[in-house]
Write a structure and sequence with these properties.
56% of the residues lie in helices and 10% in strands. It is an alpha/beta fold.
């Protein structure tokens, strides 16, 4: 096919392509950046955005097959092509909506292949938009599909699936089964994400309402709880000892400590703050009262709350050492610090109440 001589009409179209090639290359990069920006502004995270300009050899092949179909180069919609690969199948519509906001869509030539119902069509369930290149007579194509659909399309292409070559039925059956499995996985990922989003909303509502005993302690709920600044009051009280500045650090590492201490809900942490703040303050006074520290970490509050809880509940030196091991990694110095804290705490009022 590639050795055929093009007729004069097709050769003219090919020459138009050569003349405008630099325009297409620039447009390809600009269109990709515009899509990247609109997705970023919309908060849509995607796996990849790809762009390409059709190679001359590929265009020649198309013209050899059906050059008479096109009046001019502007009738060919895929000279510039972009592909947006989403992590989740239900993000495809979000990407499409973003594309519609910045480009004029040629609806007559666009196609939603996701409406295809054949059992072996999974890897071809892309959404294809044909859009107008701004301030130009040309159009471009945007293909939008999930990362699993993209992977399947590539794998099935490599294996010769749907290539026009007859494949034994046992292989076709296996390929169809795999396509069905991947489609199920694609749908389940989207379903799980949707349910997790609903769960996070419920957690935020419960946290905001103060119904902390109803909120299981996990990563999402703990992050929401930290938004209430539950340790701010004890930290400010401790900082007042030396009029010290509070240096904010992440308190996420304490989630594992609270779980180790047997806490099941946010209500358990809230009671820790209420019941052990005085003890935590006493420990801090012993730690920094005779020093000239003018900066303290925001972790001093939760750390001393945990130390007080561990000591009061019989965890002793071993319990404190495990806490520091979890926070800082295992070290001989953790054992030394734990021993010192145990010795200091023996004479503090909260230990004798």
């Amino acid at each position: 096919m590639g050795n055929l001589v093009l007729d004069a009409h097709s050769e003219a179209i090919l020459q138009e392509y050569r003349d405008d090639l630099s325009f297409f290359q620039e447009a390809s990069a600009n269109l990709k950046e515009q899509i990247r920006q609109v997705l970023s502004r919309a908060g849509i995270i995607v796996a990849a955005i790809e762009s390409r300009v059709k190679e001359e050899s590929s265009l020649r092949g198309k013209l050899e097959l059906k050059g008479s179909k096109y009046h001019s180069l502007s009738d060919i919609t895929d000279i510039v092509g972009l592909r947006v690969i989403t992590f989740y199948s239900d993000d495809v519509d979000k990407v499409a909506s973003a594309v519609e906001r910045i480009f004029k869509v040629d609806w007559e030539n666009s196609i939603d292949k996701r409406k295809i119902l054949e059992i072996d069509s999974f890897g071809y369930l892309s959404l294809h938009y044909v859009c107008h290149i701004p301030d130009s007579k040309y159009r471009f194509e945007v293909q939008m599909r999930s990362v699993l659909q993209h992977a399947w399309a590539n794998m099935s292409h490599d294996t010769g699936y749907k290539s026009g070559v007859e494949i034994p039925k046992r292989y076709m059956r296996s390929m169809s089964r795999l396509a069905g499995m991947l489609e199920l996985v694609d749908d389940e990922f989207s379903k799980i994400r949707s349910e997790l989003t609903d769960y996070r909303r419920r957690v935020k509502t419960l946290v905001a309402s103060g119904k902390l005993d109803d909120v299981p302690l996990d990563g999402d709920s703990y992050r929401s709880y930290l938004g209430l600044h539950p340790f701010a009051q004890i930290n400010e009280r401790i900082s007042a000892v030396n009029q010290a500045e509070i240096h904010e650090v992440s308190l996420l590492p304490y989630l594992s400590i609270f779980k180790e201490m047997g806490f099941k809900t946010l209500g358990d942490i809230d009671r820790l703050v209420k019941d052990f703040s005085e003890a935590a303050y006493q420990i801090a006074c012993y730690q920094i009262g005779l020093t000239d520290l003018d900066i303290i970490s925001s972790s001093i509050g939760p750390q001393n709350l945990c130390i007080a809880f561990i000591l009061k509940n019989g965890g002793g030196k071993a319990g404190i050492c495990r806490m520091f091991d979890a926070l800082n990694g295992k070290s001989e110095s953790n054992e030394m610090v734990a021993e010192l804290l145990l010795e200091q705490a023996k004479d503090l009022p909260f230990m004798n109440q």
